[in-house]
Amino acid sequence: MNNENETVNETATEAATEETGNNPAGMTEEKWNELIKAVHHNGMVALKMYFKEVQSQIINLAAFGPVFVYHVKNESGDVYSTGFFLRELVNRFQSDKNPEVWVSSFFHELMKTKGGQPLPKQPESEDEAKAIIDNKVIPLCIKTVEDEFAPEKVHAGLAWNEDHGPVFEAGFPSITDGNNVCAVPLQLLFTHFQLNRDPSELVLSGMYNIRKQHGLE
């Protein structure tokens, strides 16, 4: 693929530009804390519209800032967990007429797995994290991309981006004029996977944006 045409998908990598735990420029610490509290509260309210037992925690990731993790218990007492980035929740609550439908949809999907689905165990070393990326994240993304656009031939694999480092790159060889490739940082894909989120959705979002840019959607 032509790396000159590679773009890091803006929608897919919004979380990569999150403030990293410190209040952003122009916002006082008080206002920042109010924002975190409000987003956390809105998430709880949204989920309690569908589930009786909801617990939560806020974690700070060095690369992505605040992540809101929610734990929902079903009628059998099984726990299902997933997490959301600050910016995506803010965008949903501001622009979506029914943000609770979007937030709860992740748990409805997780609950298709009987017996609960807590967050995956955190890797204890870089080698362990790399093994998760190589053996789970990347194969999942490749398979999803190929299945989604079959029988069209697509490009999917690893690449290097000057600004974001190692990325998963996917695109359409059939598009020869203009941007034909999107790229998502591996760290962002890995973080989604560890939050019980499907990392391949980030890649698909970027690929559909490319098709839209070329009038193919």
Keywords:
disordered N terminus, 217 residues, 4-stranded mixed sheet, alpha+beta, 3-stranded antiparallel sheet
- In round numbers, the mean pLDDT is 89
Tell me the number of strands: 7
Q: Could you tell me how far the N terminus lies from the C terminus, measured between alpha carbons in angstroms?
A: 22 Å
Please state roughly what percent of the residues sit in beta strands, choosing from under 5%, 5-15%, 15-25%, 25-35%, 35-45% or over 45%.
Answer: 15-25%
Order of helices and strands: EHEEEHHHEEEHH
Biggest sheet strand order reads 1-7-6-5
Count of runs of 4 or more consecutive helical residues = 6
The major pleated sheet works out as:
4 strands, mixed
The helicity comes to 40-55%
Topology diagram in text:
Layout: E1 6-8, H1 29-48, E2 53-61, E3 65-73, E4 79-85, H2 86-95, H3 99-110, H4 126-149, E5 155-161, E6 165-171, E7 181-185, H5 186-194, H6 200-213
Parallel strand pairs: 1-7
Antiparallel strand pairs: 2-3, 3-4, 5-6, 6-7
Helix pairs in contact: 1-2, 1-3, 4-5, 4-6
